[in-house]
Amino acid sequence: MPRPDPSFLPCSPLDEFGGLKYLPRLLGKIRLHAAGRLWEELHNNLGKGFDLWLVEFFHLDYDSLRERTLAGGSDEEILAWCEERGRPINEMDRKVWNAYVAKIGWNDHLSETLTRRKAESGLADRDDIQTMCHYIDADEGRG
What pLDDT was estimated at residue 6? Predict the structure, then answer.
C-alpha cells in the first residue's frame, strides 16, 4: 500500500503536549477530519482505541472533546478544558499514561493485533516494531 501524503496525517502518537503522549495526535486527527484532510485509513478508528483511552483517562467522552476542539482555541486552552470538565492530571498521571502509550502492544492484550497489523501492512519482517506506536509511525512513513 502506498504511504499517505504527510499533509493528511496527524503527528506521531509519541509526540507530547502538556506532558501527555498522544494528545497532539488526537487533536490533530479531529482537526484534519473536520477539514476533510485526514488519511482515510484513520477514519474507522476515530474515537476508538488510543483516542477513546485518552479521553476516558480525562473522564470525558470523545464527542465532547471533538466538539470543544472544533470550537477553536489553542491546544493549551483545550487541555485546560479537559482538566476542568474531566479531571486534573498530575505528574504521576502523566508518567502512567505515557508509559502505557509507549508500551501498548508489547507483550500485552494487543500483541496479537500488532502482529496481525504488521503482516497486513507488509511490515511483518520489522522486528524493530515492538509497540503499536512504533507500528503507527512505520505505517505512516515515519519509521
Answer: 87
> pLDDT digit string (tens) for 18-59?
999 999 999 999 999 999 999 999 999 999 999 999 999 999
Phi-psi region of 134 (alpha: psi -120 to 50; beta: other; left: phi over 0): alpha
Q: Work out the number of other CB atoms within 10 angstroms of the CB of residue 4.
A: 16
- How many other CB atoms are there within 10 angstroms of residue 28's CB atom? 18
Rg, Å, the chain Cα set: 15
* Cβ contact 68:52 at 8 Å: no
pTM of the model: 0.94
The sign one gets for the Cα dihedral 8, 14, 16, 22 is positive
How many whole angstroms separate alpha carbon 140 and alpha carbon 4? 7
Q: Which three cell numbers stand for residue 2?
A: 502506498
CA separation for the pair 32, 26 (Å, rounded): 10
Question: Phi, psi at residue 59, to the nearest 5°?
Answer: 65, 40
Q: In one letter, which amino acid is 99?
A: A
Phi-psi region of 4 (alpha: psi -120 to 50; beta: other; left: phi over 0): beta
Of residues 43, 39, 45, the one with CA closest to residue 3: 39
